[in-house]
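DM between two lab members

TW: hey, do you still have the Cytochrome c oxidase subunit 2 entry open?
JB: yeah, one sec
JB: this one, 129 aa:
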Amino acid sequence: SYEYSDFNNVEFDSYMIPTNEISIDGFRLLDVDNRIVLPMNSQIRILVTAADVIHSWTIPALGVKVDGTPGRLNQTNFFINRPGLFYGQCSEICGANHSFMPIVIESVPVNYFIKWISNNVNSSLDDWK
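TW: and the structure you got?
JB:
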């Protein structure tokens, strides 16, 4: 689950797309139904926690790995200097569905991010590009 608390508490869940529903150009076990959209050329701070067991929110291409621990709040920050898709997943052995927790960040220019955040969070970026 994700929450953009600085932007009117926009919240959504992100789930892996099942293999039988993935598009021809999709990545099996990595693509999600709702991507995290973040502005490029901006310092990003994220807060991470967990509800059940220890998880590890990891995006290798960005050099980001932060543990989410139940009852604790952890934070990290990073800077994305180019547009694109960045794939990651939980990298903690957190249970039976550990391998089914992918993360996808879509880095976009700031003006696209502002339009996205002001629209419905579930709308596609392709709708307003």
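TW: got it. The first helix runs from residue 110 to 118. The CA atoms of residues 91 and 111 lie 32 Å apart.
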